[in-house]
Amino acid sequence: MCDIDLAALLPQLAAVRVDAVEPGTGVVRITARSREGVAVACPACGWSSAWVHSRYVRHVADEAVGGRPVLIDLSVRRLYCENPACPKTTFVEQVTGLTARYQRRTPALHRPAGCGRGGPGGENRRPAAAVPAPGGQLQHAATPADGAAAARAVGAHSAGGR
Ligand SMILES: [Zn+2]
After folding, report:
1. Which helix (H) or strand (E) holds 55?
2. What's the angle, vertex CA 13, arms to CA 9 and CA 17, rounded to 5?
3. Nearest to 19 by CA among 31, 10, 8
4. pLDDT tens digits for the chain (162 residues)?
5. What's the Cα-to-Cα distance from 117 to each of 51, 95, 109, 142, 157, rounded to whole Å?
6. Is residue 149 part of a domain?
7. Given CA atoms 132, 136, 140, 145 in this order, what sign does their dihedral have?
8. Ligand 1 center from residue 83 Cα (angstroms)
9. Separation of 102 CA from ligand 1 center, angstroms?
10. Distance (Å) from CA 90 to ligand 1 centroid
11. How far is the CA of 86 from the centre of ligand 1 (A)?
12. Could you tell me if residue 157 is inside a domain?
């Protein structure tokens, strides 16, 4: 029914089981889940565990495919750490290439723009930081006043709240 080779298109999905691909009008939505029975190392102590506490769904934005953004509803496991001396009772697994702690975008989206996307445009990019900003002195002088105003506003707010 769907003859797209998903593994070739999105190799980062090789580590998970894809349940559904919905090529909607705007966004390509992929439903996937991490594989059962795979032991994962606890981030605190390094002990491996495949003892599942629960699962929950993370919504991860991935690189665009065919110009359309990709959203992955990824079911990941919360696992028990089996090390009695570890301060972490449970931890959430990370899926290589798809998730990183506290991030809602896949690692691929964190690469600098142009990296890995070859082409003549990438090499002619001028470093924006080398251009001196006009009116830099004025901006610098205005900053402390803004900061003081912000501090007063915060002070007034917290005083009013008590
Ligand atoms: Zn642990």
Report:
1. strand 52-65
2. 125
3. 31
4. 455 667 677 777 888 999 999 987 889 899 999 999 999 999 999 999 999 999 999 998 887 877 888 899 999 999 999 999 999 999 999 887 787 665 677 878 777 655 444 444 444 444 554 445 454 444 444 444 454 554 554 544 444 444
5. 40, 23, 12, 40, 48
6. no
7. negative
8. 6
9. 18
10. 8
11. 5
12. no
81 closest CA partner among 72, 73, 91, 69: 91
Structurally, how many domains does the chain consist of? 1
Q: What is the CA radius of gyration of the chain?
A: 23
CA of 148 to the centre of ligand 1 (A): 46
Prediction pTM value: 0.58
Please report which helix (H) or strand (E) contains residue 150, including its range: helix 136-160
Rounded Cα–Cα distance for residues 53 and 78 (Å): 5
Task: Please give all residues whose CB falls under 5 A of ion ligand 1, grouped by chain where several chains appear.
Answer: 42, 44-45, 81, 83, 86, 88
Q: What spacing in Å lies between the alpha carbon of 77 and ligand 1's midpoint?
A: 15
**Residue ranges making up the domain that contains 57:** 6-110
Q: Is position 148 within any domain?
A: no
Q: Is residue 89, in this structure, part of any structural domain at all?
A: yes
Distance 41 CA to ligand 1 centre (A): 8
Q: Which two tokens stand for residue 81?
A: 């750490």
